[in-house]
Amino acid sequence: MHAAQPALSYAPDGGAAVSDEALAALVEQVRAGREYAALAPDFVIGIAAVELAHRGPGKATTKAVRSRLHQMVGAYEAPPADAPARLAAASDEELPALAAQLRGRHASTREREAAAADFWSAVLADLPQPVSITDLACGLQPLSLPLVDLPRDVLYRAFDVHLGILATAEAFLQRWGQTHEVGSWDLLAGPPPGGHDLVLLLKTLPCLEQGRRGAGRALLAALEAQTVIVTYPLRSLGGRQVGMADHYRQQLAASVDGMPWRVEPLDLRGELGFRLRRA
Ligand SMILES: C[S@@+](CC[C@H](N)C(=O)[O-])C[C@H]1O[C@@H](n2cnc3c(N)ncnc32)[C@H](O)[C@@H]1O
Questions:
Q1: Which of 35, 112, 161 maximizes ligand 1 atoms within 8 Å of its Cβ, making it the mutation to test the pocket?
Q2: Distances (CA, A) of 198 to 17, 134, 217, 228, 277
Q3: Hey, whose CA ends up nearest to atom 1 of ligand 1?
Q4: I need a labelling partner for 62 at 20 to 30 A (CA). Which of 108, 146, 152, 181 fits?
Q5: Residue 162, number of CB atoms within 10 A of its CB
Q6: Strand 155-160 and strand 132-136: pairing?
Q7: Is 20-72 CATH 1.10.8?
Q8: Residues of the chain with CATH 1.10.8
Q9: CATH superfamily of the domain spanning 83-278
Q10: How far is the CA of 137 from the centre of ligand 1 (A)?
Q11: Is 161 in the pocket of ligand 1 (CB under 6 A)?
Q12: Measured from the CB, is residue 31 less than 6 Å from ligand 1?
């Protein structure tokens, strides 16, 4: 089942007016690169519109858009193109091992792998059985369901802007037999509408801040949910660790300041975790 984000209308604040032709040409140039062709077109258009308004057309703008997209998405690597077909063809016995192998192909789930089962226990502890789990900027986290005893009728909603990730998540959830909904959703434009039960926002707020300063706060203000699990990485992709926990603690405090969220620390191995509940 698919959820689709309505077409977005981009009105970048500041900068010059952007012509449709210049924007279309820029998006085509950006998406000509293999890494960028796998990104949801509306997401690329949004980032391109902002850079075009501030820099005007030219090679430097194409480079700036690609660099921003790489920081937000590309740096985490993509699942192999044949992943959906392999998942669809896997037997019941093969599926958990194949899912584990594929989780290793995305930096975020690879970092979590040593503690992946404990991760789910910590997330679900002290919560009633969720009716649905909404995994925002999901990466390959949906492929970790073999590590948790989640009834198959719990609705798992998975959103991202990388089309290869979405196809892989869809194929896995279908084969696993989980009730699910998978769709492309650019969180820079806000959360999927409606009330959510348990929301996962794992290692994603820093990516959104790279797309637009203040995007994390805007998302948390607009998100209608009972519980939100927010995590942050404790190492950069390059392996550096200096001061990240303090920095992200402060970033989250600023992001929810004045909002009706009660923030509790969540004890996770290898990432900094918080549980947000409606106050
Ligand atoms: C650091 S990874 C985290 C993946 C997953 N949540 C996890 O912890 O394993 C960031 C994810 O955010 C996605 N992403 C980046 N910008 C996004 C946006 N504006 N809207 C939705 N997803 C986005 C990327 O494609 C990538 O899968």
A1: 161
A2: 40, 6, 18, 6, 10
A3: 203
A4: 108
A5: 27
A6: parallel
A7: yes
A8: 20-72
A9: Vaccinia Virus protein VP39 (3.40.50.150)
A10: 4
A11: yes
A12: no
Which of 43, 50, 72, 77 for mutating ligand 1's site (highest number of atoms within 8 Å of CB)?
72
* Nearest one of 47, 81, 77 to 65, comparing CA atoms: 47
pLDDT tens string 62-98: 999 999 999 999 777 889 999 999 999 999 999 999 9
Query: Which burial class, exposed, middle or buried, applies to 252 when counting CB atoms under 10 A from its CB (0-12, 13-18, 19+)?
Result: buried
Q: Is the CB of 73 under 6 A from ligand 1?
A: yes
CA of 67 to the centre of ligand 1 (A): 16
- Taking only the tens place, the pLDDT of each residue in 100-118 is 999 999 999 999 999 999 9
The answer on pLDDT for 4 being more than 70 is no
Asked whether residue 1 carries a pLDDT value surpassing 60, the answer given is no
pLDDT at 19: 87
Ligand 1 centroid – CA 207 distance (Å)? 7
In the prediction, which pLDDT does 181 show?
98
Angle of CA points 116, 121, 123, to nearest 5°: 90
Q: pLDDT, tens digit, for every residue of 161-192?
A: 999 999 999 999 999 999 999 999 999 999 99
Domain with CATH 3.40.50.150 in the chain: 83-278
**Given this model, what pLDDT does residue 9 score?**
47
Residue nearest to atom 10 of ligand 1 (CA): 204
Q: What angle do CA 205, 179, 261 make, to 5 degrees?
A: 35
Give distance in angstroms: CA of 160 to centre of ligand 1: 6
- Is pLDDT above 90 for 17? no
Query: Is the four-CA dihedral 221, 226, 232, 237 of positive or negative sign?
Result: negative
